[in-house]
Amino acid sequence: GDRRRKFRFGSGFDIDSKSMLDFFKRNKDKKGGFTFGGASGPAFYSQSDVDFGGLKILDANMSTSGCGVAAAAMALSNIKKTKITPKDLIDIAERHKIVGDGIEPNFFSEIGRVYGVDVQFYKRHDIATAEVCKYLSKGNKHIVAMMEKDYNGKNRHYIYARDAHDDHIIFDDPASSQGKGQIMDAWHFTDYAVMFVVFIDKKSSIFG
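and the corresponding structure tokens:
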């Protein structure tokens, strides 16, 4: 069965956990929407966006192979607090495109150097779930995670994690125009992830 139904909220998914319902009640704002960590309007880019979906990345395009590019653009925009779109990263992406597949990890290292952001890599189980939650809840660290095949039933896929509350990860999935503000149990998030790319704001990284 689809394990995500018990741990993830989004368009087309059920909420069947009391803790998730409580989470939404605590974070519901006066307009009926939801606020996460006080963030207002975090950047979101979909691979299928009309402005980016057709952008070429060597033998492919954003809509088929641009999840890593879109996720990185979201992370950079929200860390630097300026608009950085997938289009801004295309030239770098082309240098690190894997033919017939996605983006190699060196792509993230290079955009970190270009935009002045520290980038650290962790493999699955090299970083504890509690540490991931701690990173995200502080606000100065954002994570682009490569999720395993079981996450979406297709191929390995990059998503952008931007916050954590009550052992739940708030993330944006660039595969869908409705992918903003998804929620997954933190333990399952770290279990699904094959690799974590941690983006750290250099101005605040000295504080951990």
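(Above: one complete record from the training split.) The first strand starts at residue 8 and ends at 9.
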